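Work package 3, deliverable 3.1, input record:
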Amino acid sequence: MTAESQKGRRASKDTRRRQLIEATIACIAKRGLGDTTLAHVSKTAGLSQGIVNLHFTNKVNLMNETLSFIRDEYEQAWKNALEKAGDNSARQLSALARIDYSATVADPKRLAVWFAFWGEVKSRPVYKKICQSRVTDYRLILVGILNKLIDNGCYKELQATNIADSMMSMADGLWLNMLISSHVLKRKDAEKLMMQYLAQTFPQHKNYFLDSHS
Amino acid sequence: MTAESQKGRRASKDTRRRQLIEATIACIAKRGLGDTTLAHVSKTAGLSQGIVNLHFTNKVNLMNETLSFIRDEYEQAWKNALEKAGDNSARQLSALARIDYSATVADPKRLAVWFAFWGEVKSRPVYKKICQSRVTDYRLILVGILNKLIDNGCYKELQATNIADSMMSMADGLWLNMLISSHVLKRKDAEKLMMQYLAQTFPQHKNYFLDSHS
Amino acid sequence: MTAESQKGRRASKDTRRRQLIEATIACIAKRGLGDTTLAHVSKTAGLSQGIVNLHFTNKVNLMNETLSFIRDEYEQAWKNALEKAGDNSARQLSALARIDYSATVADPKRLAVWFAFWGEVKSRPVYKKICQSRVTDYRLILVGILNKLIDNGCYKELQATNIADSMMSMADGLWLNMLISSHVLKRKDAEKLMMQYLAQTFPQHKNYFLDSHS
Amino acid sequence: MTAESQKGRRASKDTRRRQLIEATIACIAKRGLGDTTLAHVSKTAGLSQGIVNLHFTNKVNLMNETLSFIRDEYEQAWKNALEKAGDNSARQLSALARIDYSATVADPKRLAVWFAFWGEVKSRPVYKKICQSRVTDYRLILVGILNKLIDNGCYKELQATNIADSMMSMADGLWLNMLISSHVLKRKDAEKLMMQYLAQTFPQHKNYFLDSHS
DNA sequence: AATGAATGAGCTTTCATTCAT
DNA sequence: TATGAATGAAAGCTCATTCAT
């Protein structure tokens, strides 16, 4: 048995896990965390009853892995966006902020899943940890960019960490509004509000935020 | 033992309902929506198994009523705060914004309950409706205050509805941060960030937001 | 306190019991034995929750008393009918047979109750006993009448007990048909079938059974 | 252990359903409809708690299927008996009538189950329908046979439908007597009474009913 | 690796019964 | 005598998990 075939097998195993996690996301979005059963998940995945226990041992584990999965997905998204933004700090800030309202990140299903898990954070230390880990790297990078921007421009009175926390809070709150009032606040509206905040905070770089840099 | 005794075989219907709702809030905060059973609720209330069905018919109804209860509580809080603020728009804005970080409103248990229900909003139309109803009145009043402030001051370029949405989003996001990173972001910190946003948005009224008007 | 007032009190107590038994009959007819709860009974009687336990100690007792009540009612009915029939055996037989299809005895609610209890006879010795007691006297009297008729007429080959059992069986079966196919087999139809059986069995007394002696 | 093993983790769906229905019949006969719980049924079947819900979805469905099962069983029985009877109408009538007192049809458990369901007919439309369906075919066939017999013999004055209804009523009533007074009226006694009725109704074919054609 | 019948603990709900008023 | 809030045992049902195939 060659290394190749081994890899093929392992790949197929990963495919199953991925397939089940996607099914889990779909179920949570459709019926909420509390009403998502393993029967629903396996049926959605088009597989058999016991399949989740086979690949994830138990339900708790499946849920943890699902949360980790969307956290990783999110991280991938903003890191990609950042890479494409080049070296300019204002451009980086814009890219980082905008990614939260892109079709893939602000996908209704994803939002529903984030809030489903946030709803249990208080009572589930594991969820709390994973949710915290979502923002640690992000916040570090964001503060770094903000500091550069503050230094380059003449925003001596601003505090990078404060702005970072305000931005991140506003971003999460906009997601909540998109979830609860999806018919009123759409992705583009939310993005505009965020960009207005940045434009107001960094008036010298206004044009980076107000022009349509999709 | 008072006439409004919390225990024993006799109590007014409202007392019992209130008592059970408080127990429900405590349970949701402690173990999450999904792991809150009627046995937990009745035990927490110091009453018997069947008591919830007696007073709320079924679990679904208990949950709806619990959510409605904290929404009413929230409404009461900001309306009270507004009344005390007098006629000055900036003072009103400050009061309205600050109430979200008061000990009673930003009570950890209450926050946990809000997020627990928000987590199910996508899959439960009733929760969605109640959560939406929480902000309709609030937003109307807030926009009114903002418009007055914009007219009085020289903030011609500002749009009241945009600021209202940004404020409300930031507020919710700060709540999430207080929930997830309670050890880092405390009530006072969150309030400070919100006040900074207001000070930055309405620089002429800066002093209304930055001085400590607890 | 006079004997009179004592009697008044006792009478009122009996009224309550009667009222509750009637409510029980109505409930059993409406929802069956299995779905009849004490809450239904007391509500139907327009009284409070605990009233049945007050007057009948417990549910089992209420049911036994209800069954005994309709048995007594039935006994009263055929004894009255017999008394009115006079001394003629054929006339007595006719009266006895016809009473089963009178409006009061073959009342749909009563039929439903009889079958409800018969349905539990196998597993409830008390019901069995009461149901048996319904027919012991009846059968004795019936056999007596039949013997007289056999002696008077020239029915030497007939066996009174056999005819009694056949008659009683047919009567119960007609009740079942009236219960199950109430739209097809009405009281008068059932009565006609029974009378035909008697006319055929006692051809010399045909006219006692076929004329309309309502 | 055969392929159609009654126990163990694997058995065909039909085997399990049949096994559970038999257990249900046994429970109803033993404790009545009202006191038959799913725990009793599954325990009687030697299986686990949730097994009924797995195979019948819910209790109501199990009961409906159980009733349908004994109705089918009954139909099978009289159709078989009829087939064996050959072409002679009197012989057919005798066979059809006698089957009600055969060991398999007039099995005490079966009788108890019939009466248990009849007891709920008034309040359960589904039971009513199934119970009605038990006799529709039967009555048609019976009337057909009676008509032939009436034509062949000289029973011009008889009405086939009347006789059919009388026969069927008497049969059901005899079942009730066997249920309530099992120690007095045995299967053979009941059969004799029914045969006497037929002999009396069709005197020219007397010998078909009175001789012992088991 | 995958299936799905079977399990059984635990949930919501019902309801006969109790008891303070 | 009568009420009805409260109780708690027991019911039906769900569902994560197991395991023979």
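Confidence is low (pLDDT under 50) at residues 1-9 of chain A.
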